[in-house]
Write a structure and sequence with these properties.
The protein is an alpha+beta fold. It is built from four helices and seven strands.
């Protein structure tokens, strides 16, 4: 009987404790909601701050990140007939050491944007107008394709001295011929046209509508934009 009475006494105490916890939780939730409402109302009444950023240098940074912008690649083939004439027996007998090299290679051209300065970009963001002053296109790489380049004929006369460096000289001559052929075919002009289209697309994505690109023309007060050709790789 004593045990039953003690259990009955604990029942009301437990209920009161649960009610007290519920009231405290409800009060805390109400206070949190009121605080959030006051904070939102306070922020909405504050004056709006306007930040103005000069964005012209950002255009130059975007262009600089492109570094050397390649605009055109030529794949060409050339046959190099290189001969070295030799005289033996007191110049009484003429002999030859010859090689016939079939050379295939690639020539790339583009515009070097690393030398751009803020004055090379004349931008008017309100009018959505921009003018670029870029250096002329140059040859970036001129290299042989070793997988497609091969020696067709290698001939050394009986009394001639075989020059082991003749193939190396033929390959160098092939590289010079490839670059010359690409320039004669208009690779530099085509590269400038391709670079202009690429930059126009980039600048239109930045919001510009009127875009002018000048090659080899410097802005007023600066030296001409001349970038030397890069050494072939």
């Amino acid at each position: 009987m004593g045990a039953k009475r003690s259990r009955r006494r604990k029942g009301p105490g437990l209920i009161r404790a649960l009610l007290l916890v519920s009231l405290v939780f409800a009060a805390f939730s109400l206070f949190s909601n009121l605080s959030a409402g006051v904070g939102c109302g306070g922020r909405s009444n504050r004056p709006t701050a306007v930040t103005i950023i000069e964005r012209t240098p950002d255009v130059v940074v975007a262009l600089r990140e492109l570094a050397f912008l390649e605009g055109m690649a030529f794949h060409t083939e050339r046959v190099i007939d290189l001969r070295e004439r030799q005289s033996t027996f007191f110049r009484l007998l003429d002999t030859e050491d010859a090689i016939l090299l079939v050379a295939a290679g690639e020539v790339r051209a583009g515009v070097d944007l690393r030398a751009l300065t803020p004055r090379a970009v004349d931008a008017d963001f309100e009018a959505k107008r921009v003018t670029l002053y870029l250096p002329n296109a140059t040859i970036s790489t001129s290299r042989l394709d070793n997988a497609r380049t091969y020696v067709h004929t290698r001939r050394t006369d009986l009394f001639a001295t075989r020059r082991e460096d003749l193939e190396t000289r033929a390959r160098r001559e092939a590289e010079r011929n490839l670059e010359k052929a690409a320039i004669e075919a208009g690779i530099l002009e085509k590269a400038e046209a391709s670079v202009q289209r690429t930059l126009e697309g980039l600048l239109r994505s930045l919001g510009f509508e009127e875009i002018a690109v000048h090659f080899g023309v410097s802005p007023a007060g600066e030296a001409p934009l001349l970038i030397p050709a890069l050494d072939p790789e």
